[in-house]
Design a protein that fits this description.
Length: about 120
Amino acid sequence: MSGKTLRRVILEMGSGNDLHGGDYTKAALRAVQDALHHSSLSMLRALQVPPAEMVVEVTIGVQRPEQVDLGRVAASLPYGKVTAKAVKGGLDIPDPAKDDPAVVASAAIVVSLPL
């Protein structure tokens, strides 16, 4: 990356849920997949940038960020040098009949390239 500056080239967002079980990681993984399905990285070929040189930052928003397995989230991205963090956000929808909330997660994926 000598002589090149890291520049943000993509910001993609997605949402995902876990309707039963309150699994924040499952909701986060679904949010990441939703975001990925909105993107095509054809510009990497056009710019002749190897996918391994991408810097990928994932931010997950859920009501209980400490319950997200960030290792699994990072591993779900197919390319690049990935970091993941979880922050307070998303939505929990309680079930008044039992302790089984529906969990909604938001994902923001930022891709930067050395250009």
